[in-house]
Specification:
Layout: E1 3-12, E2 15-25, E3 28-34, H1 35-41, E4 46-50, E5 54-58, E6 60-65, H2 81-92, H3 98-114, E7 117-124, H4 132-144, E8 147-154, H5 168-181, E9 186-191, H6 199-212, E10 216-220, H7 224-234, H8 238-244, E11 252-256, H9 262-271, E12 274-277, H10 279-284, H11 292-297, E13 302-304, H12 314-329, H13 337-344, H14 346-352, E14 367-371, H15 381-387, E15 394-399, E16 402-405, H16 411-427
Helix pairs in contact: 3-4, 3-16, 12-13, 13-14, 13-15
Length: 429
């Protein structure tokens, strides 16, 4: 639909503006500006108008998700990381069929849309048997309306379950086949980590990405044990090993980046690499706290992610991002609301190479309608969203100009709920 969207109140470039408007054409923003000026340029377009009772903001960007991990929440809480991985993740996820993946992802993606997440990077493991599971995830994204970046994982560690594991040749061939079959889907490569993907596989993934102009997502320095393992096996830290492998460059998206030195932060910055911060999952699993403030000072592009999807909410991630930095610095002025909001929107999209996250010409027409009655009249809108908001404040979600959430649970979401109830019984969760 081609239309003018008029906003009595909107957050543009991190700042609240009044009587702002943008033109949505073929899913993208064709023009922005003052409403009177915009309507003069497009006098024949239909008008969608939002009053002062709501606030229009860009859609949120989820830079790292494992949607199937929603099946672990509740019963797998409060475990050590080792038990959580071996007795929960590696026990349940390998048993999922493509049909199970479809319904799980419909449920997870619906939760994300309800929370204002319009783009999600799904770091997807279940590739050991081929592409059927990944195709189910793609279909779930198409049917729910969320924008998907599929970070197709490459893993070859012997300890990994067979359902996750491939040879380098299999990963290359299957990823190429998936890209050919779904040319409209943003697919990138994701060697799991320095402990679950061999050095040869990591190098092959970067070569694959360079040939096809893709990004490379990889878990880096998430927990202390990874650094210890890397030092024992290779005699260097994770970031140094990435450098020696020749993959530390502008294509690399380092997920977590918690246990890295000051020099390694500078090395990430000088290489043009990006980082995805997952503050809620880092707390949930007891991983540690990423020095987001330090990375920001060095100019490292960063995004936020929901990772384990215990509660897929960028509102919660924004709040945690700011509060953890304040606590680490023992300084209430550290990493303010505007900085966290930027990670969840414009900067997050830029870090991931996605043309979204801003109400800006040439960007995707992704936006949220927020209940402005929840915002104190004396409060800056962004501060209210970061420090006080709840998912319930979001009344509508639009992706590429199309409404994909209106406050009511869709028939598809209801069907997914019933399917997951049956799946939980089958898996004895």
């Amino acid at each position: 639909m081609n239309e003018i969207v008029r906003c009595a109140r909107a957050v543009v470039g991190g700042v609240e503006m009044e009587d702002f408007a943008f033109v949505s054409e073929a899913g993208s923003i064709a023009l922005t500006g003052d409403f009177k000026a915009v309507v003069k340029s497009y006098p024949s377009h239909s008008l969608r108008s939002f009053g002062r009772d709501v606030l229009v903001v860009p859609g949120f960007i989820n830079g790292h998700s494992h949607a199937y991990q929603m099946l672990l929440r509740g019963w797998a809480d409060d475990l050590t990381f080792e038990k959580w991985r071996s007795e929960a993740l590696y026990t349940v996820v390998p048993r999922l069929t493509p049909d199970d993946i479809y319904w799980t992802f419909v449920a997870a993606f619906t939760e994300m849309l309800c929370a204002g997440i319009t783009t999600v990077v799904e770091f997807f493991y279940l590739n050991g048997a081929g592409n059927a599971h990944a195709e189910a995830a793609i279909k779930a994204a198409q049917d729910t309306g969320i924008r998907l970046v599929l970070a197709r994982t490459w893993m070859d560690a012997e300890y990994a379950p067979p359902a996750f594991r491939e040879t380098i040749e299999q990963a290359q061939t299957r990823t190429a086949e998936l890209m050919s079959k779904y040319p409209h889907v943003n697919i990138c490569v994701a060697p799991h980590s320095l402990h679950a993907a061999s050095p040869a596989m990591i190098q092959a993934s970067m070569a694959f990405a360079q040939q096809r102009d893709l990004f490379v997502h990889i878990h880096v320095a998430e927990a202390q044990y990874e650094g210890e393992q890397t030092a024992a096996a290779h005699g260097v830290t994770p970031v140094e090993l990435l450098h020696r492998l020749g993959v530390l460059n502008e294509r690399l998206i380092a997920v977590h980046a918690i246990y890295i030195s000051e020099d390694e932060k500078k090395r990430l910055a000088s290489a043009g690499s990006r980082v995805v911060h997952n503050p809620m999952t880092n707390q949930y699993l007891g991983d540690g706290t990423c020095d987001v403030s330090g990375l920001a000072e060095l100019g490292v592009p960063m995004a936020l992610g929901t990772d384990a999807d215990v509660k897929p909410s960028l509102i919660e991630e924004m709040r945690a991002a700011s509060l953890l930095q304040k606590l680490a610095a023992r300084d209430g002025s550290a990493f303010d609301a505007a900085a966290s909001f930027d990670l969840a929107t414009a900067q997050g999209a830029r870090a991931l190479g996605v043309q979204a996250g801003a109400l800006k010409q040439g960007f995707a027409a992704d936006f949220l309608i927020i209940d402005a009655s929840r915002i104190d009249p004396w409060s800056p809108a962004v501060n209210a969203l970061v420090y006080r908001a709840e998912n319930a404040w979001i009344k509508e979600t639009y992706v590429s100009g199309k409404q994909v959430w209106n406050g009511e649970r869709s028939a598809l979401a209801q069907e997914a709920g019933a399917a997951l109830t049956q799946l939980a019984q089958t898996l004895d969760l």
